User: Which sequence fits this backbone?
């Protein structure tokens, strides 16, 4: 089977947890072939290079999202009319607001606004395919004027009607960036102008995330009926709402103005992401959330629950095996917190909880192990250190001993915690104090180590723990302290919970179970749609991209058809990698 793996900012680049998950998936499914279509987020990421690719990765195509040069493609009168119609319909659909929360039964017919957005999106995609790109048109004055007309039209959102020229320019620029994947030359059928390189030649598109990564798969579904599988371990639409401060259920999808964006900009950008997510969920053959928390968000954003199948992310358990097998190494008077230091982790509540705990267990220590996340995390870490110094003056065992603070701040690789596994092994109880959390990776790692845990009830925590740890409300230092005291005073209970947590993690959250699940989903989806338009020389249908007959020393396929490349924008070109075909330069205006 030939899989088109669609990524954004992850695989095959060196950085990112998403890239690590994709690498494990590809290596674990060596019986399939993979074509990787990667959208790059930042220039420094591309400069860092790729991971070492396994032999089942047949080819890699990349395109940057952070920049796009105007190739000077001049549309004729008919093309300009097509662009004006499609772009006008798209921005009109956005100005009518976010897609409503689905209130009817799963799989209900889409709204008129959803159909309008989808038809406009595919109209722009077809125009880009015919003319060689959209960058110039999306940056043109005509695009801004069409957006202004949509904002001023009757029935538009109040926040959209209030948009001024700077806001209109900001929204138009965001639309151009979001629609850059439409201008790529990835949408060939594999038997014509692209020499077998297009997404039309794969048996299945697997988008490793929603948003921009799923857009090429959406077009492959539209042009060639290639089934689309979407995996979201963190719902991209939820992330957008959290980062922009947008409320998806309020009219206009905008809250109070912020320094980053005006209400009109946030309302229209939120509408774009909401419409795109709803169309991706509608066209996907299967959507695999990483947990029930993500699943609820997907259902709220329009996903048909009949298409949803929860697949927990696979994590490497072997590096924690030694710690899990030897539970007697933990200090019975030490609490451990491990993660990225940022405000969402609510270390302030943890420090106040530890102050309450010390009243009951004065010999307990707290080790906070983790690096700050960016400049905001660095400032937050400094604040937490100051708070710890105020709450816990240095203590000494006697009049001639040096005082020591019961709270320590460390990073992985230091003398006290040289490895991640040894950091988890340092304490009897692992604490998670977050106020916002998706899938709690650190909690699963603690479970692999056989550690008892105390966590706040956020995100997918309850689903991951499954009764093998204590869960308390977020932002409640007293409840957090009481739960920690209960475990510190009961070593037998700690051991039982730790053993149960390890057994649960090994059953549900390993790389092996993740790979097995996706292998079954691949076979199921392709079995539903085995017939493709490509044929053998004798006219018989070809059921898969690489049929078994292709292994025989004979001419079975029509891949020797002469190649004629279509015009593509210069920013989308990329040097060939691993048996790729060269990409031609633009041929100019049509």
Assistant:
């Amino acid at each position: 089977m030939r899989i088109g793996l669609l990524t954004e900012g992850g695989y095959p680049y060196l950085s990112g947890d998403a890239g690590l998950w994709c690498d494990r998936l590809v290596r674990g499914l060596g019986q399939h072939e993979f074509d990787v279509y990667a959208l790059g987020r930042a220039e420094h990421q591309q400069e860092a290079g790729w991971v070492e690719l396994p032999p089942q990765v047949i080819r890699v195509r990349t395109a940057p999202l952070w920049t796009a040069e105007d190739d000077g493609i001049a549309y004729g009168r008919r093309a300009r009319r097509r662009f004006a119609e499609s772009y006008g319909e798209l921005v009109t659909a956005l100005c009518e607001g976010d897609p409503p929360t689905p209130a009817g039964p799963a799989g209900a017919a889409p709204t008129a606004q959803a159909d309008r957005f989808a038809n406009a999106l595919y109209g722009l995609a077809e125009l880009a395919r015919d003319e060689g790109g959209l960058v110039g048109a999306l940056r043109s004055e005509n695009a801004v004027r069409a957006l202004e007309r949509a904002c001023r039209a009757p029935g538009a959102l109040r926040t959209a009607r209030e948009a001024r020229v700077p806001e209109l320019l900001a929204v138009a620029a965001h639309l151009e960036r979001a629609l850059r994947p439409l201008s790529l030359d990835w949408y060939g059928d594999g038997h014509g102008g692209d020499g077998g390189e297009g997404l039309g030649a794969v048996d299945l598109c697997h988008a490793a995330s929603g948003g921009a990564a799923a857009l090429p798969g959406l077009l492959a579904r539209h042009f060639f009926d290639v089934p689309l599988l979407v995996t979201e371990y963190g719902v991209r639409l939820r992330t957008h709402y959290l980062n922009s401060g947008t409320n998806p259920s309020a009219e206009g999808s905008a809250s109070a103005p912020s320094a980053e964006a005006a209400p009109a900009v946030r309302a229209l950008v939120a509408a774009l992401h909401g419409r795109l997510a709803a169309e991706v969920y509608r066209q996907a053959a299967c959507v695999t959330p990483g947990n029930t928390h993500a699943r609820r968000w997907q259902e709220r954003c329009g996903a048909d629950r009949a298409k949803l199948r929860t697949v927990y992310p696979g994590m490497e358990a072997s590096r924690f095996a030694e710690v899990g097998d030897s539970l007697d190494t933990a200090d019975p008077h030490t609490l451990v917190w491990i993660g990225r230091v940022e405000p969402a982790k609510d270390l302030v509540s943890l420090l106040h909880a530890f102050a309450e705990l010390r009243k009951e267990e004065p010999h307990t220590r707290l080790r906070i192990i983790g690096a700050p996340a960016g400049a905001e995390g660095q400032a937050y870490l400094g604040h937490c250190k100051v708070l710890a110094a105020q709450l816990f003056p240095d203590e000494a065992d006697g009049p001639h001993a040096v005082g020591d603070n019961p709270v320590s701040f460390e990073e992985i690789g230091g003398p006290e915690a040289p490895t991640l596994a040894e950091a988890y092994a340092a304490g009897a109880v692992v604490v998670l104090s977050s106020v916002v959390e998706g899938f709690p990776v650190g909690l699963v790692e603690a479970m692999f180590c056989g550690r008892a845990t105390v966590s706040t009830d956020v995100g997918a925590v309850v689903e991951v723990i499954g009764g093998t740890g204590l869960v308390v409300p977020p932002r409640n230092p007293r409840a957090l302290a009481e739960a920690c005291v209960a475990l510190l005073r009961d070593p037998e209970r700690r051991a039982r919970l730790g053993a149960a947590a390890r057994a649960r993690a090994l059953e549900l959250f390993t790389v092996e179970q993740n790979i097995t699940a996706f292998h079954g989903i691949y076979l199921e989806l392709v079995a539903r749609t085995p017939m493709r338009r490509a044929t053998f020389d004798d006219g018989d249908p070809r059921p898969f991209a690489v049929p078994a007959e292709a292994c025989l020393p004979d001419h079975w396929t029509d891949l020797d058809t002469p190649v004629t490349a279509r015009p593509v924008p210069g920013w989308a070109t990329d040097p060939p990698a691993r048996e790729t075909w060269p990409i031609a330069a633009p041929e100019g205006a049509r």
About this structure: Residues 263-283 form the longest helix (21 residues). The first strand starts at residue 2 and ends at 8. DSSP finds 21 helices and twelve strands in the chain. The chain has a mean pLDDT of 83.
